[in-house]
Amino acid sequence: MANIVLVRLNPVIDMIIFKEPFTNWMVDAESTKWVESSVFISLQFPAYLIHFGTFLLAGLVIDYFINMFRAKQSVV
Can you tell me where the transmembrane regions are (predicted)? Predict the structure, then answer.
């Protein structure tokens, strides 16, 4: 269940997980053949790196805009 939440709540992973080169990097392709439910599909380590990297990048961009807004407020 946690893997589905990790993939579906991250828009970057949700877009690229079904594209051909990224599927083999992020999802264990052999486990998908025998799994009855998508809950049991295991993710590989690069999926977790992409997940944390995208949220780190989003956080840095948001912090940059907040600091830029505060600097503009202090000048006025």
Answer: 45-66
DSSP letters spanning the chain: -HHHHHHHT-HHHHHHTTSHHHHHHHB-HHHHHH-SSGGGPPBPHHHHHHHHHHHHHHHHHHHHHHHHHHHHHHH-
Beta bridge partners of 27: 43
Q: 45-67: per-residue pLDDT in tens?
A: 888 898 899 999 999 999 999 99
User: Contact, 25 vs 44, CB < 8 A?
Assistant: yes
- For the chain, give every domain's residue range: 2-75
